[in-house]
Amino acid sequence: MALIRNLLLYVISLCLVMVGQVPLANADCLSRCLPMCDYNQPYCRDQHDRCSAQCAGKGTHDYGAIAYSPSTGFTRWSNKQDSREEAERLAVEECSASATDCVVEVWFDDTCAAVSAGEKGRPTWALGDTAREAQVNALEKCRGEGGRRCEVKESVCSRGAAD
Q: Is 31 exposed, middle or buried (0-12, 13-18, 19+ CB in 10 A)?
């Protein structure tokens, strides 16, 4: 059994070294699941078949969501999901582990988002092409709505990039 496991790890490593890793930016379900390797190799063919079955009917979206607790300011997020519902469910589930009043502040698809809040202010959110742009936009929105001492509570990109 150990020999098979080691052989499998060797084949995977060889595939990754020969071709490189799959870029996550703008990836769909299938490309997130598949390693980049030579599909003439048995492991790669088997993995392709498993991924094809797993991703059947799933689109090319990369949804994310940020959940926020108004009472504690606690946040949690999800990204790289195939549906808005799944992204929202995961974010609230993660947030609810530490707070009881978590709500989704923003959901997004193939972009970045940030949630900010000010002193005694309600949270605001904004989108951007990068996490930094979303943060700047969220802070401007917070200040524009009269928030004082605005700060970014969370930022994330649905593509997995935190640029």
A: middle
